[in-house]
Amino acid sequence: MNFKKNILITGSQGMIGKNIINDLLNKGHKVIGIDINDKANTDFDYYQCNLISTEDTVQVLKKIFSKYKKLDCLIHLAGIDYKLEKSNKCLDDFLNISKPSIVMESINSNISMVYNIIYSLMPYFLKQEKSKIILAGSLYGSISPNPNLYLDKNGEKFFQKPIEYSISKSVFPILAKYLCAHYGHKGLVVNNVEPHAIIDEPKEDFLKNFEKISPMKRTCKVNEIVDFISYLSLSECDYLNGQTIKIDGGWSSL
Ligand SMILES: NC(=O)c1ccc[n+]([C@@H]2O[C@H](COP(=O)([O-])OP(=O)(O)OC[C@H]3O[C@@H](n4cnc5c(N)ncnc54)[C@H](O)[C@@H]3O)[C@@H](O)[C@H]2O)c1
Questions:
Q1: Which atom from ligand 1 is nearest to the alpha carbon of 196?
Q2: Is the CB–ligand 1 distance for residue 53 below 6 Å?
Q3: The model scores a pTM over 0.85
Q4: For residue 57, which of 68, 82, 116, 193 is within the disulfide window of CB 3.0 to 4.6 Å?
Q5: In the beta sheet, which residues pair with residue 84?
Q6: Which of 196, 199, 192 is CA-nearest to residue 229?
Q7: Distance (Å, rounded) from C-alpha 187 to C-alpha 121?
Q8: Domain 6-253 belongs to what architecture?
Q9: Residue owning the nearest CA to atom 19 of ligand 1
C-alpha cells in the first residue's frame, strides 16, 4: 500500500524540481522544498538556504526535522549548470577556460551542496527504520559531453559543456554506492539518476545535431524524468540500491 510520504526536495525552484513537486502534490504527498532563491509562490513548505554552506544546511535540516519528525525521502536536485558561451570565451583555449581557480571553485560548489545535504540528513535518517535518497547526477558524470553536439553549420563550436560540470557530477555514482554499502543495513536506500537533455529552449543547431546522434532522435521530455524520479521516491522496491540509472534515450548505448 502506498502511504502518503514526506519528501524533501532540494533545487525545488528549478525546472525539474517544480515539475516533480506538482506531480507529488497531485498524488497527495507532503513536499518540503529547499532552494537558494527567494520564496516564490509556493503551495508547499519552502525553506530558502544556500546549500554550499554547511552551517546553513545543518540549521535548515534541524528546523525541518523539529517540524516533521520524519522524512521518507530526499530528492537532491540542487546544482549549478555551468555554461561556457562562445560570446565571452574562446572555447578552444583550454588553459583560459579551464583555469584551476575557476574550475576548482565550481567543482567545490556542486560537491559541497550534495555533501552538505547528505551530511546534515544522515543523523536523522540513521535513526529512522527506513529512508531514501535520490541524487540527480548527470549523464555527463559518467560519459563525456559529445563536442559534435555544439558545432554550427559552418563547423564552428558555439558552446562547450565545461569540464567542472562533468567532474562535479562524477562523484554521484560513488556516493550512491558508498552510502548503500555502508548504511544499507540501516534501512538506507540510495540511488543516482543520470538524466540527459531536458532543455527549455534549445538552439536550432543543437537540436539538429542532437537528432543526428541520438538513437531516439529527440531530447528528453520533462515529464519523462519527473515520472521516473517520482516513481523511485514512492516505490517499495528497496532492493534497488546503490545504483546509477541513466535516462538518456539510449545516448550512452552508442
Ligand atoms: N535539465 C537537464 O537536462 C539535466 C540533465 C542532467 C542532469 N541534470 C541535473 O538535474 C538537476 C535539476 O536540473 P534542472 O534542469 O531542474 O536545473 P535548474 O538549474 O533549473 O535547477 C537547479 C536549482 O538548484 C538551485 N540551486 C543552485 N545553487 C544552489 C545553492 N547553493 N543552494 C540551494 N539551491 C541551489 C537553483 O536555484 C535552481 O532552482 C541539476 O542538478 C542538474 O545538474 C539536469
A1: 5
A2: no
A3: yes
A4: 116
A5: 160
A6: 192
A7: 14
A8: 3-Layer(aba) Sandwich (3.40)
A9: 14
